[in-house]
């Protein structure tokens, strides 16, 4: 008999005992449904926490990167291209880095042996899992606006503002027109430095002014904040730089520096703040200029020691960069790839790995508990097949008498068990999907009424339902081992005499 004949005979035998087969399949359906539902709930928690909730936290999707400093580059004797040794190796004569303690205990540091330049940034962008790389180009400058002078921290911003770490939302205005425009994006906090009341200082020997009672300020609404921001939109501000030839010491101060006119093109929301990691690299910039403009003014406003070091080396690269990965699962591989380049990366990969291990234990425990019901169903399959042997003893004897061997007899019973497991697995998988869909819809109905975003409490990936079906078939075949062996051992002479 070929495989098709065996399957047809097994299907016919099951149809002859429809009620018994239906009850046996029901046991498998219950087992598969409970297995898929319990594991899908654990996977839903993992998916929501690791790939959705944690994706909103910069510490799990952001990797700050830095290169070798000027002193390190001079020590290496090369312009940051010392990659002969493995970047992860400990330099001779130095001890291995001590483990960190405290809130960033999971961060591992590797001493950089290469500068962070455009070539290094391009290599990082090619790593699998990298969403984008945003270099840090920062400088400080004195700014004049509305008759006031303040020292402001500037950062270079990309043309695509969504890549600006912690500052992607405009309250009013637009982005930059080009990468070298004399345009400024300011934060509401910076504007407060120019609009706050001027503090009065008592003159020498004069009476100290009476303290003014603190007045509780009213929190402005979104519309009021936008109206205030619209008033500064388009204003000209002056960024001050020293002249190359500052002139004589007694010359007027205004003749010893230059005023570079910039136009305010946008105001960024105050609540858009840097994340914990981004503050390590970017700090809290009060204003932003295009990246090309930032490179120019960084050189102009740099301190004399940095200028001397860059004169010796040619270029010291970027101060740092933020690497954004697509999902928290990509953090570990990207982190390792950056360190292999000879750069220094910081990442909470250890904590993320521990969380994955925790969820793996939870998934395994729930799968084990739900798998017990499948083994109970396997007992039912074994009982069904043993009863089938008793009812079909004469039929088995006839098959053996006309030339059927033990292998054919066992194949028929294995095929019956496989069909029971397959049908139960498919129906159970469909039932689990239906129950999960109803549960997700019901829970999210109440969540939506509270104004919260939608959450998938049950997550069924393809490998879960397909694995559950295969597991059900495997358990069914295992349960058929003894009945099939017993059917193959039936004596054909005694079987023919059996009523």
Characteristics of this structure?
four-stranded antiparallel beta sheet, 499 residues, 51% helix, elongated, six-stranded mixed β-barrel, alpha+beta
How would you describe this structure to a colleague?
The protein has 499 residues and is an alpha+beta fold. Helix content is 51%, strand content 14%. The protein contains 17 helices and eleven strands. It has helices at residues 3-16, 18-53, 58-61, 70-76, 118-125, 188-195, 222-232, 276-282, 291-301, 304-313, 331-340, 349-391, 393-401, 406-449, 462-479, 481-488, 492-497, and strands at 62-66, 130-136, 138-145, 148-157, 170-173, 183-187, 236-242, 257-268, 287-290, 320-325, 344-345. The strands form two sheets. It has a six-stranded mixed β-barrel. Strand 3 and strand 4 (148-157) form a beta hairpin. Helix 4 runs parallel beside helix 10 (304-313). The longest helix has 44 residues, at 406-449. It is elongated and about 125 Å long.
Total strand segments: 11
- Parts with pLDDT < 50 across at least 5 consecutive residues: 78-108
**Secondary structural class:** alpha+beta
* Main sheet properties: 6 strands, mixed, barrel
User: Rg, please?
Assistant: 36 Å
Shape: elongated
Query: What is the helix tally?
Result: 17
Kindly state the percentage of residues in helix: 40-55%
Name the strands of the widest sheet in spatial order: 3-4-9-6-8-7
Strand content: 5-15%
Q: H/E order of the elements? A: HHHEHHEEEEEHHEEHEHHEHEHHHHHH
- Mean pLDDT over the full residue set: 76
First-to-last CA distance: 26 Å
């Amino acid at each position: 008999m070929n495989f098709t004949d065996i399957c047809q005979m097994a299907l016919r035998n099951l149809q002859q005992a429809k009620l018994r087969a239906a009850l046996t399949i029901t046991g498998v359906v219950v087992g598969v449904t409970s297995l898929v539902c319990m594991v899908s709930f654990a996977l839903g928690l993992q998916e929501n926490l690791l790939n959705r909730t944690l994706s909103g936290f910069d510490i799990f999707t952001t990797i700050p990167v830095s290169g070798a400093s000027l002193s390190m580059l001079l020590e290496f004797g090369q312009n940051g291209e010392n990659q002969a040794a493995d970047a992860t190796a400990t330099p001779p004569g130095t001890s291995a880095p001590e483990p960190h303690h405290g809130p960033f205990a999971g961060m591992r540091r590797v001493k950089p042996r290469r500068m962070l330049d455009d070539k290094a940034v391009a290599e990082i962008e090619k790593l699998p899992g990298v969403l984008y790389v945003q270099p840090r180009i920062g400088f400080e400058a004195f700014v004049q606006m509305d008759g006031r002078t303040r020292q402001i921290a500037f950062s270079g911003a990309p043309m695509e503002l969504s890549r600006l770490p912690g500052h992607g939302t405009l309250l009013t205005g637009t982005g930059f027109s080009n990468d070298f425009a004399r345009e400024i994006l300011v934060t509401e906090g910076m504007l407060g430095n120019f609009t706050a009341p001027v503090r009065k200082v008592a003159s020498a020997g004069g009476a100290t002014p009476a303290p003014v009672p603190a007045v509780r300020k009213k929190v402005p609404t979104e519309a009021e904040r936008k109206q205030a921001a619209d008033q500064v939109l388009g204003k000209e501000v002056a960024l001050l730089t020293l002249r190359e030839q500052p002139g004589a010491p007694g010359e007027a101060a205004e003749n010893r520096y230059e005023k570079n006119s910039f136009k305010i093109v946008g105001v960024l929301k105050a609540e858009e703040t840097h994340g914990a990691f981004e503050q390590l690299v970017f700090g809290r910039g009060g204003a932003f200029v295009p990246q090309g403009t930032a490179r120019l003014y960084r050189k102009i406003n740099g301190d004399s020691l940095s200028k001397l070091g860059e004169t010796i080396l040619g270029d010291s690269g970027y101060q740092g960069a933020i690497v954004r990965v697509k999902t928290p699962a990509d953090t570990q591989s990207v982190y390792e790839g950056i360190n292999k380049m000879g750069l220094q990366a910081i990442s909470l990969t250890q904590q993320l790995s521990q969380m994955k291990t925790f969820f793996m234990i939870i998934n395994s425990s729930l799968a084990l508990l739900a798998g017990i019901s499948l083994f109970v169903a396997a007992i039912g399959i074994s009982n069904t097949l043993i009863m089938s042997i008793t009812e079909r003893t004469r039929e088995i004897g006839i098959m053996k008498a006309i030339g059927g061997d033990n292998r054919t007899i066992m194949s028929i019973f294995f095929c019956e068990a496989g069909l029971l497991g397959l049908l139960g697995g498919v129906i159970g998988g469909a039932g689990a999907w239906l129950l999960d869909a109803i549960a997700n819809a019901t829970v999210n109905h109440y969540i939506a009424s509270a104004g919260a975003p939608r959450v998938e409490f049950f997550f069924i990936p393809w490998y879960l339902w397909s694995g559950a079906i295969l597991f059900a078939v495997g358990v069914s075949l295992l349960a058929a081992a003894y009945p099939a062996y017993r059917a193959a051992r039936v004596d054909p002479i005694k079987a023919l005499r059996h009523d």
